Input
Amino acid sequence: MALTASCPSCGAPVVFQSAGSVFAVCEYCQSTLVRRDQALEDIGKMAALAEDRSPLQLGSEGVYKGVHFALIGRIQIKYSQGLWNEWHLLFDDMRTGWLSEAAGEYVLTFLKHPGEALPAFAELQAGRKLTLGGQAWTVSNKEEAECVAGQGELPFKVGAGYPLAAADLRNGKQFATLDYSETPPLWFVGEAVEFSALQLRNLRAGMPLPGATVAAEVFRCGVCGSPLQASSPSIVAIACRSCGTVVDAADANHAILSRASAKETKQYQPRLPLGSKGQLDGEAVEVIGFMVRRTRSEGIAYDWREYLLAAPNGRYRWLTEYNHHWNVVDVLSDPPAGGIIEVDSVRYRGESFKHFSTAQSAEVIQVAGEFTWRVRHGESCRAVDYVAPPQMLSCELTDKEITWSLGRYAAADEIAAAFALKKLPAPLGVHANQPNPWAAAHRQACRRFWRLLLLLVALQVAALSIFGSKTLLRQDFNFSQQLLAGPESTLRSREFTVTRPGSRLAVRNTTSLDNNWLALDLMLVNKTTGEAWPAAREIAYYYGSDGGESWSEGNREDEVVFVDLPAGTYYLTVDPDLAPEKPVPVNDRLEVLTAGAGWSNFILALLFIALFPVFSRFRLAAFEGARWADSDHPPTSGGDSGDDD
Amino acid sequence: MFGKFNLAAAALTLALFSWAQQQGWSLFDDVANGAGRGGSSRSVYHK
Output
């Protein structure tokens, strides 16, 4: 039930729509009014609101989760990055809430009772992990701001210069604010919302909506007079291309934020000039800002370029360039949960990112164009990078703020094609999140190896069954000194037939040697042509024990192969020679076999097909070694820190 | 390029393997070289 009272100063009606509102500003005379039962007390004039470009106004209406709400009050706050508005909402179900509007971003929160003591403001710092209301939170921003003015109905007293210390907390898409302007501090919990999703109407006439294309605001640089332009309401800083001076675009007088020397202004030329238009990931983008940042390690400066891109629907993207390696980067509205800042690995969107490097100070050394925050020369942050090629998760930390972004490695050709450039310089070295070109080849080589192995085993089984060796002759001999002394010391085997021309025959002797040796002169003779193939063999086998340890040497068996034999009938002649120092008879089983499929070819083929995955594995590891050599975790000895399958 | 080379080499390997198995060729064969006694490539240690 709305309460209507008269303004004690001008008599105009003042309406309290919410029972929770105790404070109002008369919209006619700007008197600050405090509700006391049915009467209003005038406690002085409220300061005028600073002119801003908010599309919202008192009386604007919207819908959140199916419940209609109206904007009934507003607090305008000045902070380090400009102005932000806290709009007091009254829902149809009589709940009240707050719609925070800062730099084109909207967050809707409700006052909650945490049920526990809240930490002191001084204890908070960006990146700190907290558990409040049973949930893990990370401090994403800490501000000591100041109230500019109030408007409409408010649940508490505000006024110009009223200090406002607040900390923003995030957990994925969830958002919370700790407001230290009262004691005990207030706890607001909610989420980031899209402007369009709130179905807002009765908006302020003539103000650009977030994401809408508006005519650029053009003015002149206060130092060199060069023309400057802010192409969107969310642009709050503009760096002059001529003199490097950074001016406050949101300030009516365009106050100077920082100045630059001539050297700082011209040290680097943007590879993509300001105003360049292109198509990135299927959407139109325009380069509106250019920045060079520097970090030092062991006295060496590492500089990289960053390009701010204006994308459709009021979004902004980044392109980063280091050693001609490019990344397309988006600031995350749902950063990794749990307050992770510098750990070995971070899990995000199902991907595991490994810590790559931490730059204690990434300093802005050159700026040009438009920016969505009050960028200054020399401002710095701590930068922590995690990689899961081709992605890179980066965390930038200052005392006040923590920002997460996700980058995707883009090939120079992709960027050249996106901005219709003829060619961009070839990348130098290996970048932190550059995809390993050997990863796919290695996976393919491994998959192919296993398939080939299966095929090889199948072929081997087939070869053993089809081309197995066959015995053509088996004959036993007994060699003795008496035989050698006799007239027929050369023995002749039975005949056997070779049917296939070009055959290979294996002649195997299995003897009964016992600490003895035997020499055999073999002659394979083609009975029809008389052609003969000689082979001299020496077979020895010794064994014994030495110091209680048994040993053996040589072999009782011997095999020799005759190759390229024509088809025909064959026999073997055997001329033995026995050891004179041990004149004992020796038994010998002579076997002639066709040489069939064996295992040596299988082993050779196996080794050969394994060469490819082994080679690709080495190349993969070499690339990973080069990648991690530039990290905080360089490989210690030849190995790699990268992933592998 | 690497993949194509791998595929071509694998095909050649399997073809050579099949041919060698069919021929009964073996890397470790001790092939008769026609040498007389004592000229064999094999040497034997006598105690």
Remarks:
- Chain B has one helix and no strands.
- Residues 2-23 of chain B form the longest helix (22 residues).
- The interface with chain A takes residues 2-3, 6-7, 9-10, 13-14, 16-18, 20-40, 42-47 of chain B (CB under 8 Å).
